[in-house]
Amino acid sequence: MRALVLNGLKKLDVEDIEKPALGADEVRVDTAYAGICGTDKALYAGLPGSADAVPPIVLGHENSGVISEVGANVTDFQVGDRVTVDPNIYDGTCEYCRTGRPELCDNLSAVGVTRDGGFEESFTAPVSVVYHVPENVSLRAATVTEPISCAVHGMKLLKFTPYQKALVIGDGFMGELFVQLLQAYGVHQVDLAGIVQEKLDFNKEKFGVTNTFNTANGEEIPADYDVVIEAVGLPQTQEQAIEATKKGAQVMMFGVGEPDQKFSMNTYEVFKKQLTIQGSFINPHAFEDSLALLSSGKLDVEPLISHELDLSEIQSYLDGEISGVSKAIAKVSGAK
Ligand SMILES: NC(=O)c1ccc[n+]([C@@H]2O[C@H](COP(=O)([O-])OP(=O)(O)OC[C@H]3O[C@@H](n4cnc5c(N)ncnc54)[C@H](O)[C@@H]3O)[C@@H](O)[C@H]2O)c1
Ligand SMILES: [Zn+2]
What we know:
Elements: E1 2-8, E2 11-16, E3 26-36, H1 38-44, E4 62-70, E5 82-85, E6 88-89, H2 95-98, E7 109-110, E8 122-126, E9 130-132, H3 139-142, H4 145-156, E10 165-169, H5 173-184, E11 189-194, H6 197-207, E12 212-214, E13 225-230, H7 235-243, E14 245-253, H8 267-272, E15 276-279, H9 287-296, E16 307-309, H10 314-318, E17 328-331
Parallel strand pairs: 10-11, 10-13, 11-12, 13-14, 14-15, 16-17
Antiparallel strand pairs: 1-2, 3-4, 3-8, 3-17, 4-5, 5-9, 6-7
This protein binds nicotinamide-adenine-dinucleotide and zinc ion (ZN).
Pfam family, one: ADH_zinc_N
Cofactor: Zn(2+)
Keywords: Metal-binding, Oxidoreductase, Zinc
C-alpha cells in the first residue's frame, strides 16, 4: 500500500509498504483523511511530540476512515463502520493512569507517533481508542476530532459560567476552535487577538466573535477578561495572556513553546488578581464530546479546513512552502 514514511530527520518518502498484521483486539482502518499539525512539524524536525517518533515511522495522528478488518476479539465494530481514532494509548498501570490522569501516563504510546498512523492507505489501532463517527458528520470533518479533543480537554480543565468574558489569543486553527467552543460552553462574549486581519474579520462575521485585536497593528488588548486562552505558544503572547486578565481570571496556556522557552510575568499580579494559570496536555476522554459537538452543529470545522493535500505534498507543507494554510489535511481515500 501507499505510505508516507518518515525515514529520518526531515526525510519523508512515499513508499509502497506491506500492510501491518492485525492484532486480536485491533481494527484495520482504511484512511479517508489524515490531518497535519504542529506536532507533525516537530516530529519531522526531530523534536519530540507527545512522545518520540523513531524512524522509520508513518505519521498521521489525526485521522478518519472506514474499518476494513476486525480482530478476533472485536465485537463493537464491523467492516464498513466509519470511524476516527484517538491516537493516544495509555498503559493503564502507572501512577498517573491509576489516579485518573491518563494523559500524564509514564508510558504513552500513540498512533502516528510511536506506531504507524494515517499517512498511509490503511493503519491498525487497538479497539479501545476507536470511535464511531455519527452519521451526520462527514469523515472530512471527523479527521479533526483529535485537535478538537485537545481543545475540549483544555476546556474541561477550566470552570465556565455564562457571565464570563473570554479572550482567545491566536488566530490559527486551534484558536478558531476555541472561539466556537467557548460559545458552545455558554460563555457570553468571546474576543479574538491575532495578527491576520482576514482571520479576525472572518471569525467576527461567521463565528460570533465580539471584538478583535490585531496586535501586529499595535491594537491594545484591555486587561478585562475572566478567561484567556493562549493558543500561539510564543513568550510575547504568553505575556499578553497574563496581562489581559481581570481579577479572578483563569489563563489557559494551550500553545506549545520551545522546550527551553520562558516568559516573564508579574507574580504580584498573580497574587493580587488570584489568577489560575493552567496547562493542558493532549486529549483524554474527550472524543465523545468532540463528536457530539460536531454532530449537534455547535462546532463547524468545514470552513476552517483550507487545504486537502496528497501524501506527496506533505513534505512541502512541513517545509513551509505552502502558504495561506488554516488547516491542512491529507486526502488518502477521500471516503465520505
Ligand atoms: N496543548 C495541546 O494539547 C495542544 C494541541 C494542539 C496544538 N497546540 C498548540 O497550540 C498552538 C496553536 O496551534 P495551531 O494549530 O492553531 O497553530 P498554527 O500554527 O496553525 O497557528 C498559529 C497561529 O498563531 C498566530 N500568531 C502568530 N503570532 C501571533 C501573535 N503574536 N498573536 C496572535 N496570534 C499569533 C498565527 O497567525 C497563526 O494563525 C500551537 O502552539 C500548538 O502547538 C497545543
Ligand atoms: Zn500510564
